């Protein structure tokens, strides 16, 4: 059986696309990926998604997205797609038994790592890239957060719920984060700052015990029990990079003003094609666009 539409990814973009496609009678099937709900499930309180006067936990918001998509008949399969291949009549999703006439790629982006010594060795033993996943384990501990963008400041602010102190380690003397996020962080008495600081190594025996940084050519050791990496993301485009056009950073290139890619029948939505805004609401909006573009393609 050839599906009409397969959607890769189950974050705001993928699930919004599923809602619109299902309501249009297309009967989409969603490949959830290895992290159902996407990056938003790693976020604590979501305060800027329209329709919620009070903050909502990211996992709860995505559960509502999924329930709404299911209500209209969307089907789900767990797991990741290895690659997409063009076949007669559509596309084969290698790694599954799915063949579809059209595909929406909404696979999002994954956290980047610093690659400093000790980072991978202590992963799960004091090193993390997900504050909402692991913050609970650092009650009354001293923590370092590496980064200077929105991700880093959001992680640091969230971690103050548990930590005794949080030190933001940033290689520049100013943050790249939004003004609102900076104001929130600067107002938090638990957050300290190390400017012009470059991480050199993560130190410990069985668990993280310290972070070694270089500040102005001088090495310093910060006693911490946790190190959270928050330096950005890499688009999850491995499954399509050999088939459709991507930019130098790996993000999918869409036609201007649409979600169409360089291959007719394949559309892209959300962070996998957006390295600028990267917000839940913009991802959801592009998911709507992708569903409408796919509907037009299938009806042509």
Q: What's the overall geometry?
A: elongated
**Content of β-strand:** 25-35%
Following the backbone from N to C, one meets helices and strands in this order, namely EHEEEHEEEEEEHEHEHEEEEEEEH
Based on CA atoms alone, the radius of gyration comes out at 21 Å
The main pleated sheet reads as:
7 strands, mixed
The average pLDDT value, as a whole number, equals 93
Q: What structural class is derived from the secondary structure elements?
A: alpha/beta
Number of strands: 19
End-to-end separation? 20 Å
Weakly predicted, low-confidence segments: none
Structure description:
The protein has helices at residues 12-23, 58-71, 131-134, 150-159, 179-186, 280-299, and strands spanning 3-8, 29-31, 45-46, 56-57, 75-77, 83-87, 90-94, 97-105, 109-111, 127-128, 142-146, 165-169, 191-194, 197-204, 208-215, 218-223, 226-229, 233-235, 266-268. The chain is an alpha/beta fold and 300 residues long. The strands form five sheets. Strands 1, 2, 5, 6, 7, 8 and 19 form a seven-stranded mixed β-sheet that branches. Strand 11, helix 4 (150-159) and strand 12 (165-169) form a beta-alpha-beta unit. Helix 1 runs parallel beside helix 6 (280-299) and helix 4 (150-159) packs parallel to helix 5. The protein starts with a strand and ends with a helix.
């Amino acid at each position: 059986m050839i599906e009409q539409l397969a959607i890769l990814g189950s974050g705001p973009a993928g699930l919004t696309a599923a809602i619109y496609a299902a309501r249009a009678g297309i009967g989409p099937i969603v490949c959830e990926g290895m992290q159902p709900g996407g990056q938003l499930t790693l976020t604590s309180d979501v305060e800027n998604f329209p329709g919620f006067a009070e903050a909502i936990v990211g996992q709860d918001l995505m559960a509502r997205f999924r329930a709404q998509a299911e209500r209209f008949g969307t089907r789900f399969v767990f797991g990741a797609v290895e690659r997409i291949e063009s076949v007669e009549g559509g596309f084969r999703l290698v790694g599954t038994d799915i063949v579809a006439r059209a595909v929406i790629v909404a696979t999002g982006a994954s956290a980047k790592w610093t690659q400093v010594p000790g980072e991978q060795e202590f992963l799960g033993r004091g090193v993390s890239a997900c504050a909402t996943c692991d913050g609970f384990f650092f009650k009354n501990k001293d923590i370092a957060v590496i980064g200077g963008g929105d991700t880093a400041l959001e992680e640091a602010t969230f971690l103050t719920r548990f930590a005794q102190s949080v030190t933001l380690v940033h290689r520049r003397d100013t943050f790249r984060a939004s003004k609102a996020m900076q104001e929130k962080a600067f107002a938090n008495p638990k957050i300290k700052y190390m400017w012009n600081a470059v991480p050199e190594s993560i130190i410990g025996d069985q668990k993280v015990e310290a972070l070694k940084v270089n500040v102005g050519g001088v090495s310093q050791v910060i006693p911490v029990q946790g190190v959270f990496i928050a330096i950005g993301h890499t688009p999850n485009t491995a499954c399509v990079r050999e088939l459709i056009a991507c930019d130098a950073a790996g993000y999918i290139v869409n036609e201007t003003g649409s979600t169409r890619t360089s291959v007719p029948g394949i559309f892209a939505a959300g962070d996998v094609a957006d390295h600028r805004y990267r917000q839940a609401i913009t991802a959801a909006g592009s998911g709507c666009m992708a569903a409408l573009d796919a509907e037009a393609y299938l009806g042509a």
